[in-house]
Amino acid sequence: MDVNAAVAAAAAIAGVLTGVIAMLAFRWSERDLKRPTRTSLHTDPVLPPGVDTVLSVLRSSAVVLDEGDAVVKASSAAYALGLVRGGKLSVEPMLQMARDTRRDGEIRQVELDLPRRGTGRGEALAVSARVAPLGSRLVLLLVEDLTEARRIEAVRRDFVANVSHELKTPVGALSLLSEAVMDASDDPEAVERFAGRMQIEATRLTNLVQELIDLSRVQNDDPLEDAEPVRVDELVAEAIDRCRHAAGTKQINMAAGGTEDLSIWGNRGQLGAALGNLVENAVNYSPARTRVGIAARRLTAPGGDQIEIAVTDQGIGISDKDKERIFERFYRVDPARSRATGGTGLGLAIVKHVAASHGGEVTVWSSEGQGSTFTLRLPEAGAARDRAQQHPDLDDEAGQSARSNSPTSPDSPAYETLSAPEVLP
Predict the structure, then answer these.
(1) pLDDT by residue (tens digit) across 61-112?
(2) pLDDT tens digit string along 399-410?
């Protein structure tokens, strides 16, 4: 009995000890779970309710910092801009702003130029950073990329300055010539000479205003709203008729050739203006007694057949550095020659916009002293119409990818189609 009682007592004591140890272990584990850790401080639950959802829909890059400057939350855009690296805010001016705001609770905003990550060039990102307190411990940093907005603003300023300069030249000339006419009222020969000059300047001013209107129209209008099948041979004939007088004055032979019965789906007026500008440039920049050729052909492409129209001249050619800017508004390879020919520097810009808005592109091959070939590539009527009806957004995407410069060899098929075109009367 004594042995059995001792065993029972020992077992009871062991059970009690086991229960006490288990209870202590449970209490200890609960206290560990409730204790904040380094990891738990940087997870989403520390954010105030609803903040995570708001940050996910903001267009600006968002970064949330804790009291130790560690990143609690960062949007994907913040990583893309290189603002966050290794769990830390990598831009020292922004980090200093966050510390100052944490200290005094004031909202701060500043514009900065940041080095572009992954490029060895001196390009910079223009950003606007705004820092505000978020609760009692956190700081919110919102960063907006202003690079594209600044580029557009610079383009707008340059455009206004260029337009003002281009308008000022013929207007000033007209003013001076009118004074000369008044002073020479007793000299019929001088009046006739000055009146002729006034007519030239008035024509230049009219052309400039008209091309500004055309450029504005092709940039703002959707050419596919009134799209229709447009025959390429009719566009070519119209372009030749437009330049026939200028070509005849310089004894330039204009010739057309290539594949017949081709059609493009688009706005007839804009397509005619684009091809007419290419042919007009070819005539204006070609020496006397040379030849301008226009050829069209069909190209098979994965997204649908394309129509390629190449305009070749035997003019002065374009240098490599000028080819990179040839489609910019008001840019001229030779400003003095452009003024002599009445060029405004807007013709190729209009061609580029028309090609892009129709889902195509315009490219140039040129060699100084040998001439140039401008090639307009546009979707064929059937393929373009079907694509526009089935996928209306594809034309906008295609327009954004239009390139301003692409090398074309004189040995390419586009060049060969111009070797023996049919001469039009």
Answers:
(1) 889 988 888 888 888 888 888 888 888 888 888 889 889 988 888 999 988 8
(2) 333 333 333 333
Q: Which two tokens stand for residue 330?
A: 């008001």
Contact between 93 and 112 (Cβ < 8 Å):
yes
Nearest to 80 by CA among 59, 101, 94: 59
* Rg, Å, the chain Cα set: 36
Q: Do residues 114 and 81 lie in contact, with contact meaning Cβ atoms separated by under 8 Å?
A: yes
What is the pTM assigned to this prediction? 0.52
Contacts of 162 by beta carbon, 8 Å cutoff, 6+ apart? 329, 330, 345
Copy the structure tokens of residue 273: 């203006």
Q: For 162-213, give the DSSP string.
A: HHHHHHHHHHHHHHHHHHHHHHTTT-HHHHHHHHHHHHHHHHHHHHHHHHHH
Torsion of CA 236, 375, 273, 321, to 10 degrees: -140
Dihedral class, residue 313 (left if φ above 0, else alpha if ψ from -120 to 50, else beta)? beta
| Distances from the Cα of 125 to the Cα of 95, 110, 117, angstroms | 18, 14, 9
